[in-house]
Amino acid sequence: MEKLDRKHIVFKKDQLYLHKHNLHELVAKKKTPFYAYSEKVLEENYKRFKKSISQNKQNGLICFALKSNNNIDVLKKLASMGAGADIVSGGELKQALKAGIKANKIVFSGVGKTKNEIILGLKENILSFNVESIQELELINSLAKKMNTKAKIAFRLNPKVIAKTHKHISTGFKTHKFGILEKDILSSLDNSSLWSNTKLIGLSVHIGSQLTCLKATEEAIKNMCQCANKIPFKLKFLDVGGGLGVNYAKNSKAPSVESYVSKINSIIKKNYGAVKVIYEPGRCISASCGFFITKVIRTKVSEDCRFTIVDGGMNDFVRPSLYDAFHEIFASVNSSLTFPTDIVGPICETADCFGTARELPELVENDFIVIADTGAYGHTMSSHYNMRSKPKEFFLKK
Ligand code: LLP
Asked: Is the C-beta atom of 71 inside 6 A of ligand 1?
């Protein structure tokens, strides 16, 4: 089990630091709200994952899920450490390539790939299209034929498991739009019209995100191995998707990346034998490297309700509003005298709230707060709601 670790964010003489970076100085120079990404934390997270793979003597590839964070500096850093990418749009494909991620390390997931996106993937000769319907396979085959090329594909299996997580991000059951059932995968193999310009090289599963119990994951990977064993030739890889949860709160209990990788390794070795394993982590690499920083506009008291109104809103960071997600909040003021307060933004919805009844010191205009673990699904989900501009992002060097 993983323990929440806040060693990177500390007060030194009443100044809040993100390792060597003084956040008061940063806030004085930059327009708030903004995201700050720590190169140091990002590197630690990636290297730890990679080390877990090598400790298991596994032929593994980390394809970072760009949907969690597509910042160019973050991606360049990951590319420099050898990462591949899991992408879900033409935009993400272009961004991954721009950051220096090699096309032969890119897998393309998603139920709604368009013609133009597929053409782009074919031109770049990406590692694999993770195909989510037989109709999609037909389209890939016909486009590849026109382009006189061969597409490498993996089927995304719908393993019919229910992952315990928020219902919006559980994706592995047959009522979910994702993946293809085993029987449909197997029967497609006999339909030669699908395979003139496509080659099946792998299988994938992805059953959900922020998974803190690995039972359903284990079952899904076993189901994938079972399906792989029914395919009459050896596959080049099995792709286990993403989904490993992180600890957002002190009392939460996400599994460690070491136990996750070693569990997956033993299930695959036992049930399919030696094969290349692709991982598509997003959150467990990027969440803890990101900090959303927003300044206090004013405070307000309504009888026993205290509000701290900040200049960041749900358009900038939507996870608390959309998933009731908990994120730790740190104040720029170092005091042990605290009061419960709701941290709210300027947007005209009651959902525009980053945390309720948080124990924080008295804050005044121009003090700021830091919302932790916002490097995954933070900026990538921001919008222009209420005609607000999107927050900027800053990459803080080691
Ligand atoms: N692979 C596929 C095919 C996916 O759909 C996802 C996430 C990942 C990998 C990466 O999963 P991760 O390791 O980050 O859990 N916006 C939501 C999360 C949506 C996840 C969508 N798919 C949130 O803020 O919690």
From this structure: no
